[in-house]
Specification:
Elements lengths: L2 H20 L5 H18 L3 H19 L3 H16 L2
Helix pairs in contact: 2-3, 2-4, 3-4
């Protein structure tokens, strides 16, 4: 890999990484609180049945990550849930 490309990639990763860390729950309780807040948001949004089922499946996946203390994975699923609720 050319040195300038490697340097640009390293800078990009260093720039993005701190913002990702801010979204990662600190512990299991925080993780479940985020999941509950997302479930409440989905309920308030009155999503169509198909979208609601998709969000419910993702919430189950997120809760599994919370139980397993896999907070980075839970944060990734959380972002997907937020996008689904927003209709993206």
């Amino acid at each position: 890999m050319p040195k300038h490309l490697a340097a640009a990639l390293a800078l990009a990763i260093a720039h993005v990484q701190p913002s990702l860390a801010a979204d990662v729950p600190a512990d299991t309780d925080d993780c479940f609180k985020v999941a509950l807040d997302l479930a409440d948001s989905a309920e308030e949004k009155k999503l169509p049945d198909a979208e609601r089922a998709k969000v419910d499946d993702m919430l189950s996946t997120m809760e599994g990550h919370c139980e397993a203390s896999e907070f980075t994975q839970a944060a990734t699923v959380s972002n997907d849930i937020e996008a689904a609720i927003a209709g993206e």
